[in-house]
Amino acid sequence: MDDDHLHLRLKAYEGRPAAVAGVGRDPVNAPMIRHWCEAMGDANPAYAGPDAIAPPTMLQAWIMGGLGGPGSVHEGRARAYEELLSLLDGAGCTAVVATDCEQEYLRPLRPGDEVAFDTVIESVSSRKTTRLGTGYFVTTRTEVRVGGALVGTHRFRILKYAPAPDAATAAPVAAAAEAHRPEPARADGLRPRPVVNRDNAGFWAGVGERRFLIQRCVACATLRFPWLPGCNACGSAEWDTVEAGGRGTVFSYVVMHHPPFPAFSPPYAVGLVELAEGVRVISGVVGVPYDKVRIGMPVELEFQVFDDELTLPVFRAREGAA
After folding, report:
1. pTM, two decimal places
2. Which residue ranges form the domains of the chain, and what is each CATH number?
């Protein structure tokens, strides 16, 4: 099937349902809100107490299908979306990566709200070539409702692609050989670049100078990370920065096992690191094998150079930590 014919078939799915009459697995509830806020380090009083609301960015959390998978009756996934993904698989676009999401909020969600949702396939791009491989961007739009009233919209975009040759030929035995490698795999020119925008440009400028800068609210002195345009404690838009000393501990972590592609070589550990200053940072944990990372492990900041254009902050286990 040539590209033009395939694209026409893919475009025919635009506007068709991806999920119909989906229902959240659980009502909006205080325990999930608490876990979310603890993981994010967000102590905003609006998210606790008898008049609590849910953090707006939890919108997707209430509609996810969970470990039951696509067949879950709660998810309501429609046949058209499965057909679209199968068509892409048949064209060799067997790999998938989430690229971005956009959310709009009409009113806060509160404990006890029962959410329902419908999702449509909003757009399918023309064939695109990326560093990961060649494929198609698929965007879905989900409308979330409570009691029939629209409360928010969630757009989610994935890239379904045919892995670049190096990724397609990565042998399982090679991944096994790397299993106890203490550093994340490095692949010049292939490591994904961070998204730099007007809200976080100052942070990345600091990284370029080998400084880890944390925002500090001028009004109430609350420290925050990641960088935000306003204070999540008092709402002030005025801020300055403090430089992190670099010491911290592993607050939580996951071990990534996704299929190998050139920029990474799984399995490897990604940590939620709590800095001495009190903020938490998601980054790679290096210096020890992935299976030796532990909650409470002391770590120290370092800046890892991947190529001439990319330097990233990572956290190295302090000597004797393993």
Report:
1. 0.56
2. 3-163 (3.10.129.10), 172-317 (2.40.50.840)
Q: Which range is least confidently modeled, 34-38, 114-118, 261-265?
A: 261-265
d(CA 92, CA 87): 9
Residues 120-152 have pLDDT tens digits of: 999 999 999 887 889 999 999 999 999 999 999
- Cβ atoms of 279 and 223 within 8 Å: the answer is yes
